[in-house]
Each structure stands twice: as structure tokens, then as C-alpha cells.
Amino acid sequence: MPRLGRRAGSGGAAKRSHRVATREAFRVLRSNLLVAISDLANPVVVVTSAFAREGKTATAANLAESIAATGPRVVLADMDLRNPDCHRVLGLPNEFGVSDVLLDRRPLEECLQYVELPETESGRPAGMYFLPTGRQIANPTELLATTRTARLLETLSSQADIVLLDTPPVLPVADTLVVGRFAAGAVLVIEARRTPAPSARRAKDALTRNQTRLLGVVLNKFQPKYAGYGFGDGLGYGTAYGYGYGYGSGGAKEGNGTGGDGVGR
């Protein structure tokens, strides 16, 4: 999604342009991601970043809503048991969720929340399911590494066309690498002009060494005037253009830029 600067006297137009560009960017991201997983039996996709506050949660939430609006059954699960934020982005409670299911405190059915979305252009109602983290625990890595996580994701994927997981950043903690073993692959979110290129490469390498397939890279808060900023040698970015997404070989909630490596916080 592009990040637009402010201009005197054009605040309303700039906001409208930003919303339109953001929606279009997520449509492209949605389309490319669905193609990337179309031949995979396991429709579970991790959305992560190198560090915190790069836009992974907003990207996951917007992507889930964008996909659900076209008809597929979507589950968005917040697997960031250390610093949950998905429920705040969606404006939903976080009373029971992943931790409660994994610890057998609550059945999955009691933790899933239905999110009603605006009607599609054709007038068809749309919605998705959201699974929050639930109560925070002291040892998230150990809990996520158990076979209970695999069973939870198998259950979700058997009832949905795609399951998106908002997971912790890759570099500070091992949680995402643990969860990534149960997923079809990962989308890596990095923030333009903020995430150091070596850190982005380290995050990518950590995922691939973990045998987590890199489905794509989202370049967040992209501004076309900084198109020269990139990770061309290490992450496979193509030239950024259009709305701020570029392709390599391989209304959103708050979050402002998209780049792509196969798919486009």
C-alpha cells in the first residue's frame, strides 16, 4: 500500500486516494497469494516480519478481509501470544482464544468469533472467522511447539479455504519458526526505509532454513520516490511501480505499503 504525503488543502482527496490505492494493493496481494497456494494441500499461511511494528498485523487483517470479501472461507488467527494486537485492529475482545484451546481450557467453537464484513459489490453478505490469542502465558514457544498446535491448524484448515496466522516477528523470538513448520509458507512484511536490508535478509534466511516456504514479501509504507530503496540482491525484489508493489522471480486497517516477491504493516 502506498504511503501518501500531506498537501495543503487536499486532505480529503489525499485520504480518498490513499484508500483506493490501499484497496487495490490488497487486491493484488490477495490475487497473487491465492495463486501461490492454489497447488498446496495445506492452506495455512504465516504473516510475519523481521521486527515488531513493521505492519504485519494490519497486513494480516486487511488481507483476511480482502480475501473473505470475494467468497472464500477465511480464518484469521492471532498466534502472537507475547504481544497480541489483532483483536485491537479488528475492534474485538480477546477473552478466550489460541492459548485456551491449546491448554484444553475451552473448545475451539467457543473461541472463534464471526466477523461480519460490508456487503460485496454484488450485494452478497461477507464475513470471516477470527481466533484471538486468549490469555497470555509464560512459555509461548514451548506451547506452540507441541502437537496440539498442529492439530489446531489442521482443524482450522479443514473448515476453511485459507487460514492466515499473525505471528511474532522472526528475529527476536523463535515462535514463528515453530509455527512455520505447520504452515504452507510465510509472507514477510518489511517496512520501507526502516527495516535494515541485512535484517530483512536474516529474517528471510531464518524462514528458509526452517524449511518455511517464502510465499512473498510485502513492502510496507512504500513511497514511489524512494523506489531505489530495496533488497534486490537478497530478497528478489523487482522494480517497484504502480501502487507501490513490485514483482521478483519467486481500506484498510492501518498499514501503508505493499511490495511483492511472488505476492505482494
> How helical, in percent, are the residues?
25-40%
Biggest sheet architecture:
7 strands, mixed
- SSE succession: HEHEHHHEEHHEHEHEH
Q: Mind telling me the CATH superfamily name of the domain at 42-212?
A: P-loop containing nucleotide triphosphate hydrolases
Overview of this protein structure:
This protein has 265 residues and is α/β, with parallel strands linked by helices. The chain has a domain at 42-212: Rossmann fold. Helix content is 36%, strand content 15%. It is built from ten helices and seven strands. It has helices at residues 11-37, 56-68, 86-90, 98-102, 108-111, 140-144, 147-159, 175-180, 197-209, 232-235; strands spanning 44-49, 74-78, 113-117, 126-131, 162-166, 185-191, 214-220. It has a seven-stranded mixed β-sheet, with helices on both faces. Strand 6, helix 9 and strand 7 form a beta-alpha-beta unit. Helix 1 (11-37) packs across helix 2 (56-68). The radius of gyration is 18 Å and the shape is globular. The termini are close together. The relative contact order is 0.22.
Strand and helix layout:
Layout: H1 11-37, E1 44-49, H2 56-68, E2 74-78, H3 86-90, H4 98-102, H5 108-111, E3 113-117, E4 126-131, H6 140-144, H7 147-159, E5 162-166, H8 175-180, E6 185-191, H9 197-209, E7 214-220, H10 232-235
Parallel strand pairs: 1-5, 1-6, 2-4, 2-5, 6-7
Antiparallel strand pairs: 3-4
Helix pairs in contact: 1-2
